[in-house]
Amino acid sequence: MSATIAIVEDERAIAENYRDALRRHGYRVDLYSARIEAMDAFRQRLPDLAVIDVGLGSEVEGGFELCRELRAMAPTLPILFLTARDSELDIISGLRLGADDYLTKDISLPHMQARINALLRRVSVLRDQSDEGESLTQGKLSLDISRMHCHWNDQAIDLTVTEFWIVHALAKRPGHVKSRNQLMEAARVVLDDNTITSHVKRIRRKFQVSDGEFNAIGTAYGMGYRWQL
User: Which PROSITE patterns is this protein grouped with (predicted)?
Assistant: First the structure.
């Protein structure tokens, strides 16, 4: 069965262009032009991936609010921002709210499709992994790979797909430094260094809410990050 992609975009012509391109690649596509309309639909049935614009009609940051609401409803659902807003503040804001990727509208359709394919593949691979077993435990950390569940000291930590991949890549080999490029490869996504840094900061904050003394993700300055027991 083909994956369903929800596109939340208030400019109809742009939304239909994206829809037609994705349908040619076999995806089912639902279009929404407003935050409330999209959330009403998501409460009935979640898509397999959501593509969201930041500005939605009269709501200048409606996409950010939608991302926040959708992430609370579905912690592991792949969410991708596709917007004309390209400031570093907007990008960081989107990632802090839990988006897995942030693209600007000057991106080519083939590039957009590749990023969407990568996000959906990562969900599939995580759930279908068999060579590494169903779980990974390192000290207080426990990862249920098939369900994409993460626990720290028996407390659940809600991670996005990208965050889960990064934690898994680091915890799999404690003490070994993973460069930002290696983390991108592990997460099967193309991100710049600043975006990887933003993801790591967000991961740390999530663990620190559960454990104020959390320090398992160490920084190897100029090199990358390591999982330290």
Answer: OMPR_PHOB, RESPONSE_REGULATORY
